[in-house]
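Notes to self after the Tuesday call (sharing in case useful).
The group wants a holo model before anyone commits to mutagenesis around the pocket. I volunteered. Ligand is beta-D-glucopyranose. Logging inputs and output together so the record is complete.
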Amino acid sequence: MTAHPAAPVDTVAALPLDDKVRLLTGATPWRLHPLPAAGLRPLVFSDGPAGVRGTGEIPGWTTAALPSPTALAATWDEDALRRAGRILAAEARAAGVDVLLAPLVNLQRTPVAGRHFEYFSEDPLLTARLSAALVTSLQSGGVAACAKHFVANDSETDRTSYTARVDERTLREVYLAPFEYVVREAGVWTVMSAYSGIDDGVESSPAGSHHRLLTGVLKDEWGFDGIVVSDWAATTTAVAPALGGLDLAMPGPDSPWSRDLADAVRSGAVPETVVDDKVRRLLRLADRVGALGAPGEQGAAQGRFTAYALGSRTADPAPRAAGPARAAGYADGLRELAASAMVVLRRPAAGALPVAAPADVRRIALIGPNAVSAFAQGGGSAFVEPPYVVGFDEGLRAAFPDARLTLEQGADAGRRLPAVDPAVLCGAPLVELLDGTGAVLGTLPLASWEGTVRDFGPYAASAETLRLSAELRLTEPGEHLVEVGVVGRHRVEVDGTLVSSSDEEADGTASVLNSSTNLPDGTAHAVQVGDVPRTARVVAELQRLRSAEFGDMFRGVLRHGPPAPGRERLLSAALDAARDADLVVVVVGTTEEVESEGWDRTSLALPGDQDALVEAVLSVAPDAVVVVNAGAPVQLPWLRRASTVLWSWFPGQEAGHALADVLTGRTEPAGRLPWTLPDADPLVPSVLPDAGGVLAYTEGLHPGYRGWLRSGREPAAPFGHGLGWTDWAYGGASWEHAEDGTVTVAVDVTNSGARHGSEVVQVYLSAPSGGPERPARWLAGFARVSAGTGATVRAEVRLARRAFEVWNPATAGWEVPPGAYTAHVGRSVADVRRTLTVPVGGR
Ligand code: BGC
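Result:
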């Protein structure tokens, strides 16, 4: 480990124990304590990775919403990640944030993972290289990156309690590989340990916050000299994480460390030198982000990165809140990132697209639930409040000013009923607070059914149950659905009929951690309305959810579904518009009910009636452009029927402009899939832990495309696929060895299409026979090149020595199995244009 020269580091041992321990848990959920004696101002943390969520301390904070990490990964372009990093760093500085909790370097082990859209890829090398570019760019902007969640925390089901069982080789070669890369190659300053535990066959730990992988591998072997921060509220004991590699227990102000760590040191259970090491690491981080001044100068913003306008950290809060003004500066960059990340899954052979003459387009039909409401970013801790989101209709209207655009929903994509429209309520719901015996303590009017007990003033201490009564005035004839989403013990009545009840108490911390943004489920009750309007009375009792970490709370949501406008009506309006238009764009996708942190998906199908909508539109408008607005894979049963299919990801706040730029050809949709698009019979590694809480990674070295290749089946679209708007011809390929064990593959590619464009040359290896088990093919290197029509460029793809290596658990080291490797050079893992034999000696 390299010692850092910051002066206060050397005085750490002399600090009083209580002062040191105070530094190791937040003062608030997002802010650490200052230490004036060391010139340390409070360090500030914020969530990422698709924007700077902020601390909640700046009223009205809005911030740039970037394309989802999956979108950024689809660029296969480290330079794009550096551009994204510069925007994130600038926004972090504007928010006064020192540590951005991004990137997620977990892998898309399974397509159903709830945070799939937050991860980069199912491939370790692609994840590693793109993460490192983002980390470097953030940190050279003076903002610490945080590689999370260490390690094998690749799904959400029971995420706070499962133990991932992954054999040592798989861990090293697949799941630890991106962490190793961002530590060694990008020098990441912070790492977040996972909620989930890890069992690598050598040691089993029920939590990611203590394991020899943190101490022996991350810190000792890789030389990580930053801090390991816990995931939020993941630390449940003091001693094991203190000894096991954790440096900072978040959030604050209350944690097992703030309560018990000093005593654990006094009792001898934790040596004080262990605490000193954590404090040194913290001060080193503070120095790196410019949070250290001279001793006695609390709040100083001096440091190595003063060149990066740290002034904004101490600036007046007003300009910080000026999201719209700052956003104007990022608009072009975000638009370009979102557009260039889009993936062309299918297009007609002789390009009808992009639209050659936008001015000639007279009538546009823009159809689909996600056309009406773009899903710009996924849910969970990644969610940010952007200053604006350019809707798909707004973007197309701006790009085709002379066309008449008809916007039609076409189908329903909802999984739950919508939250009740306040206009339907007769007055504000009334809330009675009940104590443990069921006696009424008092009554309050309440605007929202979700809140912390702090909202209950004098009753906060003793309220155990919240009883809400509301009256809905139902005017539209037909069947109305009414439900209350609940967590744990509850009782719900509609018009005196018991709709659902449970005596089972839920735990508040678990409820938030497992589903922070997952709205509680409920049971719908049908209320018939005839010609005369009527009211429906809802009474719901909800339990107090106890949580030391997040504060006690109540969670409930009242939902109301008015009589459906009728599927037929939605669909026929859409088909009328499609028949009538010369450009038909159908936008289907997922919703905030589907893709979020907090839960895994149970189905890969598009929600609601969207598949039927696409089929119906294609039958009247076969040339319709189908746009998939999703962060993670969904099944597209109609894929081969559509002539043009674009994957738009979660495009962030410039959604509409980005799509318009792609359709008009202003920007090439140059994305390549960073994962495999499954077909009707998907390969889905399980996310369900067994009865003992063990989640076994039985697919071993073969997640994603490696599993598809092994199964011998073809997915709907292979890893690396993306057609862009032009065509490419591959010329001769060659390779050469360098002294350091790297191999460079060179290939000439010619833009044989009609437009300027760019190509991602991908090189996959397969192993010589007779060696240890290897994937059928694995990505070993890639390079993006651009060329005008007819031009030829040489792509040089460097294959690092590590691309050939395997981990040998017996010797606890890396080695290269010798023999003749095959390098597959091409446009995707399946579209191979050249193969080379690369003999490699044992090295
Ligand atoms: C998530 C982390 C996030 C943290 C703080 C946790 O639930 O797993 O990724 O950084 O919350 O919001």
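Two things stood out.
Residues 1-9, 298-318 have pLDDT under 50 and may be disordered.
The CA atoms of residues 555 and 788 lie 57 Å apart.
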